[in-house]
Known about the structure:
Oligomer: single chain
Helix content: 40-55%
CATH class of the largest domain: Alpha Beta
Mean pLDDT: 94
Low-confidence stretches: none
Amino acid sequence: TNGHLDVIKRGSIIFDTLIVSVGRNPLKETLFSVKERMEMIRDHVKELQNVTVDCFDGMLVDYLKKQQTNIILRGIRTVSDFEYEFQRALTNRALNKEVETVFVMTSEQYSFLNSTLIREAVSLGGSVSQFVPSDVERRLKEKFKHVYGKNS
């Protein structure tokens, strides 16, 4: 979403190097594969010289160790996001005492966005052009047509 891209761009200003890591979560069903998600992210961060895109399996704290870093950047939209992310941050720190989580408040124009609402709008034939880049909207519509046989 444009909200994710906003957090990435702002994170690239805060940190010397930023790795956008796409996790493979076997418990979560995603519309796009890890490879597809990485391609879409790369397409929109290529102008950010200090940003790389990667993926990982397993626990984030193990991935951080492998990357020789200990900082996690997370975007926060709402109080409920904070509560969820706070629990995750404490769990990550319990697993590795060196891990720090940095929260960035989303820009207000993206504070209501979430991928579930975007997928729902596309599945019902709605336009999400103000919420995602145009190529992502096109891919969403293609995916819904291909996977679900719906004309979006």
